[in-house]
Design goal:
Elements: H1 9-34, H2 37-72, H3 82-105, H4 113-146, H5 154-183, E1 187-194, E2 205-210, H6 221-234, E3 238-242, H7 250-257, E4 269-272, H8 275-279, H9 283-292, E5 295-297, E6 301-306, E7 314-319, H10 324-327, H11 337-340, E8 350-353, H12 357-366, E9 372-375, H13 386-393, E10 399-403, E11 407-411, E12 429-436
Parallel strand pairs: 1-12, 2-3, 3-4, 4-5, 7-8, 8-9, 9-11
Antiparallel strand pairs: 2-12, 6-7, 10-11
Helix pairs in contact: 1-2, 2-3, 2-5, 3-4, 4-5
Protein name: TMPPE metallophosphoesterase
Keywords: Membrane, Transmembrane, Transmembrane helix
InterPro entries: Calcineurin-like_PHP, Metallo-depent_PP-like, Metallophosphoesterase_sf
Length: about 450
C-alpha cells in the first residue's frame, strides 16, 4: 500500500483539498450552533479560500514543471535570464494564491495595488492552465496520430519546449487584452421590451438595470461614481440593482458606496440580494445602508409602480432574495415567490427582480403570468475560458429571452466584474430598458 509520503505532490494537494472540503461539510451544522452568523460565515470563507488554494496547488505544480523544470535540464538553465525567470514564475504563483485572501483582509474605499496584482495573476493563471492543457492535448494527439516514431528525437524535444513558451505568450497577450477591455466604462445597451398589460400611459418607461458591481478588493468608489454618473445621464424613471453589489461588510466599505446616494430616479431605485451579499453575512446592515441612500431593498416583497400620468395605472415590481440564502441557511432569508408576489395579480403587468437566472426559471414554473424578469449573476462568463461553464450552468446566459407568449427574461452581463479585473468574450454593461405597452 502506498503511503501518503510516497504520493506525487499533485495527489497530496488533491488529498488536502478533499480534507478541507470534508471539514467544510462537517463544520456547517456544527458551527451553526457554536458561532454567531457573522463569525460562522467568516470562518467558512477562510475554509473556501483554503479549499481553492489546495485545488490550485495542483495546477501550480503543473505550471512550475512546464515553465521551469522543463528548461532546468537544458542549456537554458545556464542562461543569465533563467534565475530571474524562476523568481518571476514563483512570484506569479504566490500572488495568484494570495488573491482569495485579499477578499478577507485587503478591502477599502479604493482597491489596493496588491489586490489588483493578485487578481490579475489569478486571471492569467486560468488562461495559462487552459493553454498548457490544450497544447498538451494537441501534442499528445499529434504523437498518437503520427505513431511512436514521432516521440523521439530533437523534433520532439523542441515541440515540448515550445509548448510552455507558446502558452505563456498567448497568456500575456490575452491578459493585456482582458485588462484593457475591463478598464473601459461599461457599454450602454438599449433594449426595447414589450410588456403585456403595461398601461399605455407607461409606454416608453425607462428602467436602468445594474448588476454584479462587486464592490470589494478590485472595485472601489471611483468606478462606482463613474457608473452613477452614467446612470444619471440616462435619466431613468426607475433604477434597479439586481444583486452582487458588494463582496464585503457594509462598515468596511461604506465610503465606497456613497455615490449611490446620487441616484435620483423619480419612480425609485430598488435592490435585491445576490449570492455575494449573503457571503458577506451582513445583509441587514447593507439593507439599512441602502435605505439611507433612498434605495429600497425588495426582500421578498413588491411595490406598485404608478404611472406619472394616471394614478389608476400601475404595474407590480417585485423582488426575491437570492436562492443562495437557502443553501447558506441564512436566517430570515431565502427565495419566497409567493410572498414576493402577494397582491400581484395577472390583471396587471408583473416585473420581477431575481439575481440568478435559475431563480428566474423557477419563478416562471410557479408563476407563468410574470411578464418580465431581470437577472444578472452570469457576467456573460466574464472571461474566456470560463464563458463555457457559465453558459451550461445557467438556463439563461446573457441578453434577452422570450419565454412563452407574453414573458421575457433579460440577463445582464454585469456592470463591473468579480475579482479578476479582466473581461474576455464579454463586456460590462449598463442596460437601458425601454418598456413598451402592447
Amino acid at each position: 500500500m502506498i503511503s501518503f509520503k510516497q504520493l506525487p505532490l499533485e495527489a497530496k494537494a488533491a488529498v488536502a483539498a478533499g480534507v478541507v472540503f470534508f471539514s467544510m461539510t462537517l463544520s456547517r451544522s456544527y458551527l451553526a450552533e457554536k458561532l454567531d452568523l457573522r463569525m460562522r460565515h467568516w470562518f467558512m470563507r477562510v475554509q473556501m479560500a483554503l479549499f481553492a488554494n489546495a485545488l490550485m496547488l495542483i495546477g501550480s505544480l503543473h505550471v512550475w514543471r512546464s515553465t521551469v523544470t522543463t528548461f532546468s535540464r537544458s542549456s537554458a538553465a545556464s542562461s543569465l535570464c533563467f534565475l530571474p525567470w524562476k523568481i518571476a514564475v514563483f512570484m506569479f504563483l504566490a500572488l495568484t494564491h494570495s488573491s482569495f485572501f485579499t477578499l478577507l483582509f485587503l478591502v477599502a474605499e479604493e482597491p489596493y495595488f496588491f489586490s489588483l496584482a493578485a487578481y490579475t495573476c489569478l486571471g492569467a493563471y486560468i488562461l495559462l492552465i487552459f493553454f498548457l492543457f490544450t497544447l498538451g492535448s494537441v501534442e499528445q494527439a499529434y504523437k498518437f496520430l503520427a505513431g511512436r516514431g514521432a516521440k523521439a528525437g530533437a523534433g520532439s524535444k523542441n515541440r515540448t519546449a515550445m509548448k510552455p513558451v507558446l502558452a505563456v505568450m498567448l497568456t500575456l497577450v490575452l491578459t493585456v487584452v482582458g485588462l484593457l477591455n475591463a478598464s473601459q466604462p461599461p457599454a450602454v445597451n438599449t433594449v426595447e421590451i414589450p410588456v403585456h398589460k403595461l398601461p399605455s400611459t407607461m409606454n416608453n418607461l425607462k428602467v436602468v438595470l445594474l448588476s454584479d458591481i462587486h464592490l470589494g478588493p478590485t472595485v472601489g468608489k471611483t468606478k462606482l461614481a463613474m457608473i452613477v454618473r452614467m446612470v444619471k445621464a440616462l435619466k431613468p424613471d426607475i433604477t434597479v440593482i439586481v444583486g452582487d453589489l458588494t463582496d464585503s461588510e457594509a462598515e468596511i466599505i461604506r465610503p465606497a458606496v456613497e455615490p449611490l446616494g446620487e441616484l435620483n430616479s423619480p419612480l425609485g431605485t430598488y435592490f435585491v440580494t445576490g449570492n455575494h451579499e449573503y457571503y458577506t453575512s451582513d445583509v441587514s446592515n447593507w439593507f439599512e445602508l441602502l435605505k439611507s441612500f433612498n434605495i429600497r431593498p425588495l426582500h421578498n416583497e413588491n411595490v406598485k409602480i404608478v404611472s406619472p400620468k394616471s394614478a389608476a395605472d400601475w404595474f407590480c415590481l417585485a423582488g426575491v432574495d437570492d436562492i443562495e440564502a437557502d443553501v447558506l441557511r441564512y436566517s430570515g432569508h431565502g427565495m419566497d415567490l409567493k410572498k414576493a408576489l402577494r397582491g400581484c395579480s395577472s390583471e396587471h403587468a408583473i416585473v420581477l427582480l431575481a439575481h440568478q437566472p435559475m431563480a428566474a426559471k423557477w419563478a416562471l414554473q410557479e408563476r407563468p403570468d410574470i411578464n418580465l424578469i431581470l437577472s444578472g449573476h452570469t457576467h456573460g462568463g466574464q472571461m474566456f475560458p470560463l464563458n463555457a461553464g457559465a453558459y451550461f450552468l445557467n438556463p439563461f446566459f446573457v441578453g434577452l429571452y422570450k419565454v412563452g407568449q407574453n414573458t421575457f427574461v433579460y440577463v445582464s452581463p454585469g456592470t463591473m466584474y468579480f475579482g479578476i479585473p479582466m473581461r474576455l468574450g464579454s463586456r460590462a454593461e449598463i442596460t437601458e430598458i425601454i418598456l413598451r405597452a402592447p
